[in-house]
């Protein structure tokens, strides 16, 4: 049945809207087949007679396939269904900061309703090429191995890939903790994980005072499948609101392998033929549609940015799986977490051999670029040399011994405790100290101590040095001299 309805738009103009009223033909778990609403389009919202809502997921010859996103009661065959011809729009706004919301932006933290500033479409088009600007700033992740070795640019999409329990979430959460002083808005989106996993992250965000600038989108595994499926789009949409206001946003998707799994469940119920590894054929599109929404907007569009850190879990180090290769091909680089390194005690267990950042180093601070020029290669050489030296116990050349010492110092610098992000200035100071050779004779324990003590020594005795490095972003003659002077003083104090 089709009905014409008079609608007054915000500009006080009146127009007629076609409202179709259809019928529910069958209900299978969270999928409904309906007839009589032929003009609806994919991704739009439909309302049920009992107050439930759904989105259009696809079409069969005579039926429209609908995914139920909120239940207002039991849906039965023969119920009426209304096609409002509207895309799915959800609330966004400043008040969402500090809150935990579901995949359809409803608060789930028992802190009451959230006042929305606007309604945004959930499936929004990615910014076009003409709207974008080149990536020119880095995201300060607070993890030395990333900031120095695999830098991430603002607006970039960097995949965190690795086996179970290799420290992926920890690195992403540390990146959020580190935004406390940078003004970057953070969104942590949990998909298909158990409640305990989300609780752990929220707890640490609360403890470290990161919630005021963070939104948590919860698509945990006990939540309805539709919410788990929509959670990453909701996270992205919440970020778009801030990006369009010229803010920088970081979104963590934890994790997209679970998202693919959820979509596979939905697809099978929609009776779509499974493709490779039993995933639906359009899973590539589903994920690329999401990750394309990251970017750096040009100045005329306020110059905001949205950086994505999607996480993907693999099995036994096999990066050739369907979902992981898809995601590798649609992101700007990947950070590979190696289970072997993790068991050896290396934290974070980043494998420099298999990790890449395609644009990050261009956006690095010149000072960081200078001090970390050969870091990756030196570290990989060191690991090779270390293996060889374990086989050959004698006869190492002087040069090899010196390399081993420098490598051990570098390894001690890269090793970092969880939830202890470092400032870029701190990382530059330590890497500069390493390059001067001052750390070669110290033990790993002494280097760990040096990392914290030296920065607090400079903070108290010469805070202007830190400020001028942040301002200049490069090691000018003056900064370098002052830094060397401070290093000398610090080591003199130690030996007294
Ligand atoms: P999952 O597959 O369950 O999502 P994951 O890859 O996200 O795991 P995490 O949960 O981040 O891994 O970390 C696994 C364990 O290792 C946690 O107990 C975490 O506290 C510990 N861990 C990770 N990084 C560090 C670190 N730098 N220092 C000490 N412990 C760490
Ligand atoms: Mg995790």
Which key terms come to mind for this protein?
Elongation Factor Tu (Ef-tu), domain 3, 6-stranded antiparallel beta barrel, Rossmann fold, 9-stranded mixed sheet, 16 helices, binds adenosine-5'-triphosphate, alpha/beta, 18 strands, 496 residues, 3 domains, Lysin, elongated, binds magnesium ion
CATH architecture assignment name of the largest domain: 3-Layer(aba) Sandwich
Count of beta strands: 18
Low-confidence stretches: none
Q: CATH topology of the largest domain, anyone?
A: Rossmann fold
How much of the sequence lies in strands comes to: 15-25%
Whole-Å distance between the termini? 90 Å
Question: How many structural domains can be distinguished in the coordinates?
Answer: 3
Please report the first level of CATH classification, the CATH class of the largest domain: Alpha Beta
What global shape is seen?
Answer: elongated
The major β-sheet equals:
9 strands, mixed
Helix-residue proportion? 25-40%
> Which ligands occur here?
adenosine-5'-triphosphate, magnesium ion
Average pLDDT confidence is: 91
The CATH superfamily of the largest domain appears as P-loop containing nucleotide triphosphate hydrolases
Radius of gyration in whole Å, from Cα? 26 Å
Report the structural category: alpha/beta
Query: Number of helix segments?
Result: 16
């Amino acid at each position: 049945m089709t009905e014409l309805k008079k609608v007054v738009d915000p500009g006080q103009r009146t127009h007629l809207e076609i409202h179709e009223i259809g019928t529910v033909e069958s209900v299978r778990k969270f999928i409904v087949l309906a007839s009589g609403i032929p003009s609806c389009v994919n991704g739009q919202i439909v309302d049920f007679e009992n107050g439930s809502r759904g989105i259009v997921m696809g079409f069969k010859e005579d039926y429209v396939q609908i995914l139920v996103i909120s239940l207002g009661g039991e849906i039965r065959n023969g119920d009426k269904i209304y096609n409002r011809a509207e895309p799915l729009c959800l609330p966004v706004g400043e008040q969402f900061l500090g809150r935990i919301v579901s995949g359809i932006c409803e608060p789930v933290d028992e802190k009451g309703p959230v006042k929305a500033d606007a309604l945004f479409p959930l499936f929004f088009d990615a910014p076009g090429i003409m709207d974008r600007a080149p990536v020119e700033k880095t995201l300060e992740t607070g993890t030395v191995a990333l900031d120095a070795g695999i830098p991430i640019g603002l607006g970039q999409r960097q995949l965190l890939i690795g086996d179970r329990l290799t420290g992926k979430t920890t690195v992403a959460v540390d990146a959020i903790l580190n935004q406390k002083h940078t003004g970057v808005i953070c969104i942590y989106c949990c998909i298909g994980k158990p409640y305990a996993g989300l609780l752990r992250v929220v707890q640490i965000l609360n403890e470290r005072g990161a919630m005021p600038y963070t939104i948590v989108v919860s698509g945990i595994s006990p939540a309805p499948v539709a919410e788990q499926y929509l959670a990453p789009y909701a996270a992205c949409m919440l970020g778009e609101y801030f990006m369009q206001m010229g803010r920088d946003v970081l979104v963590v998707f934890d994790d997209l392998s679970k998202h693919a799994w959820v979509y596979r469940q939905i697809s099978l119920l929609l009776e779509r033929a499974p493709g490779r590894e039993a995933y639906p054929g359009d899973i590539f599109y589903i994920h690329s549609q999401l990750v394309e929404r990251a970017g750096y907007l040009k100045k005329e569009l306020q110059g905001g940015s949205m950086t994505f850190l999607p996480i993907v879990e693999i099995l036994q180090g096999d990066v050739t799986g369907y979902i992981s290769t898809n995601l590798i091909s649609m992101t700007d680089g990947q950070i590979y977490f190696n289970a072997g390194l993790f068991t050896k005690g290396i934290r974070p267990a980043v494998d420099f051999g298999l990790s890449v950042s395609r644009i990050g180093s261009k956006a690095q601070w010149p000072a960081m670029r200078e001090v970390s020029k050969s870091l990756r290669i030196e570290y990989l050489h060191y690991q090779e040399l270390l293996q060889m030296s374990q086989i050959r116990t004698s006869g190492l050349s002087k040069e090899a011994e010196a390399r081993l010492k420098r490598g051990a110092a570098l390894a001690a610098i890269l090793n970092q405790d969880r939830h202890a992000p470092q400032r870029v200035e701190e990382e530059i100071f330590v890497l500069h100290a390493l390059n001067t050779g001052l750390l070669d004779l110290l033990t790993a324990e002494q280097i760990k101590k040096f990392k914290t003590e030296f920065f607090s020594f400079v903070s108290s005795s010469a805070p202007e040095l830190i400020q001028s490095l942040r301002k200049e972003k490069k090691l000018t003659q003056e900064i370098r001299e002052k830094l060397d002077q401070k290093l000398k003083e610090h080591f003199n104090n130690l030996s007294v």
